[in-house]
Amino acid sequence: MFERLEALPADSLLGLIALFREDSNPQKVDLGVGVYRDEAGHTAIMSAIQKASREHMETEDSKTYIGPVGVVGFVEGIKKLVLGEQSSAIQQGHLAAIQTPGGCGALRVGSELIRRLGDELTVWVSDPTWANHVPLIQSAGLPIQSYPYFDASTGMVNFEAMDEQLAKLGPNDVVLLHGCCHNPTGADLSFEHWQRIAERANKQGFIPYVDIAYQGLGDGLEEDVKGVRYLSENIQEMVIATSCSKNFGLYRERTGALMIQTKSATEAAAIQTQIQDVARANYSMSPAYGGHLVDKVLHNDELRREWQDELNAMATRVKSLRAGLLEEINKRDIAKDFSFITQQKGMFTYLGITPEQVSELRRDYSIYMADSSRINVAGLNTQCLGYVADALKKVCG
Ligand code: PLP
Ligand code: TYF
């Protein structure tokens, strides 16, 4: 029976991990998969998470199920982290929320919930968007279309083109927005753009669906969610999928949350049963461990401060790598203008070079990046900036 199904090609991004491992060039540079790395190329466990983990090991006395919502303290903490202590939606009980297996779990449950809203709905994603958005949304049975977003000539958002598309949408449309640190381009919406999106959503009736996987890795924990909070305060309905993979370094523990903002507390209570029902039909309940750790970090002043300091240091390191790379590029008088590198936010930058140039960098210089020319800036280190800039000069002229 199984001969009916053919082997599928490997995920090209995850495939880079093996290619990099097999490369014996001592100067090799891994700018592929988007995980945070320190100067030594290591993805360390954050110190506050390590402390929370030790405490948890000593105090946890049962592994029995914890219920469909997940770790309640985690869910409550994440709501406030994203929407703020003063959030009207939290205070008025207009939020349904559930712990999920990572941001991907949140996107999948969120998409299935949207599918339950009716047969006519379409989800709009930015062009380009994170490759995983497509299978996560499509496998929930929703059609996908894309709106203009990235302007390759400036390395920034072409908001006028995006807004022109949004102006044509209506109540059967859902618009997926990256909360901050756009993956793959690093080109973020400005606060004014978020304000205009809120206005459009109110006028046209589409629902914003925010994916926020990098809070704290751009301009800071509060700054990175200014747009999302504005949206939440100024529109009635939205969906938010959040991930603790990057900002708590919990990748493999699969820790995230889904929040649905509704018009009333009664609706929120009904939607709460719906998202729990979607989760039950998929995986029953989310793994709890990562949620326990985040709950501990967020609700202990000392651990929270330690976590924030470390997260700020990570974001600062990424920013200084951006500045350092641009400085090295500028020293080499490369024909292409790369000044967007320091204007973009978060871990990713689209270099905007051709697929041939991407292959040349891989083949001749052992510099690995996604085929799209997206680089994970955190994969750089102060030692390799000159080498990477030299290679860019060679392939770009
Ligand atoms: N959304 C975006 C844009 C991402 O880049 C990521 C991950 O890395 C996620 C969501 C969710 O990831 P995870 O399922 O590992 O939490
Ligand atoms: O875009 C990235 O590189 C990260 C990590 O299936 C990632 O978001 C990549 C592929 C994948 C899951 C996570």
Q: Overall 3D geometry?
A: globular
The total beta strand count reads 13
Order of helices and strands: HEHHHEHEHEEEHEHEHEEHHHEHEEH
- Helix count equals 14
Count of discrete domains? 2
Please state the CA-atom Rg, rounded to the nearest Å: 21 Å
Please identify which CATH superfamily of the largest domain we are dealing with. Answer: Type I PLP-dependent aspartate aminotransferase-like (Major domain)
- Average pLDDT number: 97
CATH class of the largest domain: Alpha Beta
CATH architecture of the largest domain: 3-Layer(aba) Sandwich
Portion in helices:
40-55%
* Strand order in space, largest sheet: 2-10-9-8-7-3-4
Task: Give a short account of the largest sheet.
Answer: 7 strands, mixed
Cα end-to-end separation:
54 Å
CATH fold description of the largest domain: Aspartate Aminotransferase, domain 2
The low-pLDDT segments are none
- Strand share of the residues? 5-15%
* Class derived from helix and strand content: alpha/beta
Heterogens: pyridoxal-5'-phosphate, (2S)-2-hydroxy-3-(4-hydroxyphenyl)propanoic acid
Cofactor: pyridoxal 5'-phosphate
Pfam families: Aminotran_1_2 (PF00155)
Keywords: Aminotransferase, Pyridoxal phosphate, Transferase
Domain Aminotransferase class I/classII large: 27-392
